[in-house]
Amino acid sequence: MAQDSVGLSSDYQFWIQKLSVWKQASTLETQQDTCLYLPQFQEFLRQMYEALKEMDSNTVIERFPTIGQLLAKACRNPFILAYDESQKILIWCLCCLINKDPQNSGESQLNSWTRGLLSHILAAFRSDIKEVDLFTQGLGYAPADYYPGLLKNMVLSLVSELRENHLNGFNTQSRMAPERVRSLSRVCVPLVTLPDFEPLVEALLTYHGQEPQEVLWPEFFGAVNEAFLLKKICLPVSAVLCLWLRHLPSLEKAVLHLFEKLVSSERNCLRRIECFMKDSLLPEAACHPAIFRVVDEMFRYALLETEGAPEVLAAMQVFTRCFVEALEKENQQPKFALKTYFPYASPSLVMVLLQRPKDIPQGLWHRPLKRISEMLKEIVEDETQGSSGGPFENWFLLAHFGGWADIAAEQLLTSVGDAEPPEALLWLLAFSSSPGDGPQQRAQTMVEVKAVLSHLGRLLRSPTLSAGNLLAAAEESREGDPRPPACQQLTRRLLLNFLLWAPGGRAMARDVITLMARTDEIMHEIVGFLDQTLYRWDHLGVDAPGSRKLARELLAELRGQA
């Protein structure tokens, strides 16, 4: 706590010097400096309030003798009053100075002075012409009496001028000078969260002049993006698209903001992840290939950094699903070739992966699965193929549409015991679970998967099916399992599918899962599998009431134990 006090005192001296320099932000240089430091100053005010609210007014004056100077200068700076929540926090700080039971004339005078500042703040943007005059001058208008109607007309006039500027193109006689557009964006930095200024913010974002370089202030883009991410302003998708196309740091920050929300949200809940995705507007904005490529690259790095964490993989698949839905909604005729979204992939493979399983009769799902497997195998195992990327690139493409691999696993389990499992589906599962394996390792994985399926088929016909027998089929009960981790996960995935689809498996699903979930890691893996399965079934409209009911019950029980 003492360390915090020392830090606050140091910051206090810094900001009181800054406020003295800023005065009333009357020059271009001080205005620029004020706009640059507004977020940090607001955070300082918030920390100051947290300290002041724990003290009585006498202690405040004793601890910070010049607190009145600091607050008075802040209250008379229109940029500070206009920025985000600064006005509200200043009011909180001033309320801490008021002595509810003044004992002498000094305390009464302090109360009177504080109430005067509070009145000033509350009236500042309604009747104080001198402060408003700064904004009208900055916007290029002569001083005038300030009324809400004047502000509205001023904003509409500027919006109209910007739009005419856009329509007139090279007609320079009617165009707004680039310097004035830049000035507008600078003046708007502290005002972006005010509802009256939203039309002007949108008009600036969608403004496109003929200048070879960006004319809007980078700080303007940053302030708008921050306000949008924190839900302090509402913008149409077209304006957000312009923001992210014109300012790469804002797009990167938006993706990182989404990642932070996903990390802090409930683990293994794809419905919530889907809500976060759509709310972020990133899938809609990604219909523009430039934005899709940036978001996709950030998912790629996240997968590499986390060594293919299931949560990151699932989030990327949800993003892809939302992106494809937005693409289909926006484009009856595609505006961009698929190659622009997946430049390293085979276009014909992308076309097959983009097929929606729900648009194909369930009895015919084996056809696209076989085609996907054959095309991937040809690309991955033919070393002469250099144009379509290596194993990782093709696995990364398949991972976007991970539902196909999940369907392949289900197809193998629903037909277990009826016939030999199709080689194409075995190869697809082996590749999706461990893309780094070579052909020989992948062939060995296929042999082991085939053995598991054969064992499960025999158990399905056995009159003495038990949890122990099922675990033995997947070799889950043997200590020192020599299988690689990816192969172990694949066999667990097959066994879980068996529990959901086979009538005998459903009867003992709880007992088997209790024995399987030896560690928290495997428990989370099972929860993730159930959540993803239900999420996919909902989107596919899979009609399996018994399996659905069991999966929901198991998911609820396991989440309660986690």
TrEMBL record:
Gene Ontology terms: biological process: cellular response to oxidative stress; interstrand cross-link repair; nucleotide-excision repair
Presence of the UniProt keyword DNA damage in the record: yes
Any one cellular-component term (Gene Ontology): Fanconi anaemia nuclear complex
Coiled coil: none
Lineage: superkingdom: Eukaryota
Location in or out of the cell: Nucleus
The keyword Repeat is assigned to this record: no
Listed InterPro entries: FANCC (IPR000686)
Main location: nucleus
Keyword terms: Cytoplasm, DNA damage, DNA repair, Nucleus
Functional description taken from the UniProt entry: DNA repair protein that may operate in a postreplication repair or a cell cycle checkpoint function. May be implicated in interstrand DNA cross-link repair and in the maintenance of normal chromosome stability. Upon IFNG induction, may facilitate STAT1 activation by recruiting STAT1 to IFNGR1.
Assembly and oligomerization: Belongs to the multisubunit FA complex composed of FANCA, FANCB, FANCC, FANCE, FANCF, FANCG, FANCL/PHF9 and FANCM. This complex may also include HSP70.
Xref: PANTHER family: FANCONI ANEMIA GROUP C PROTEIN, FANCONI ANEMIA GROUP C PROTEIN FANCC
Name listed for the protein in its UniProt record: Fanconi anemia group C protein homolog
Organism from which the protein derives: Camelus ferus
Gene responsible for this protein: FANCC
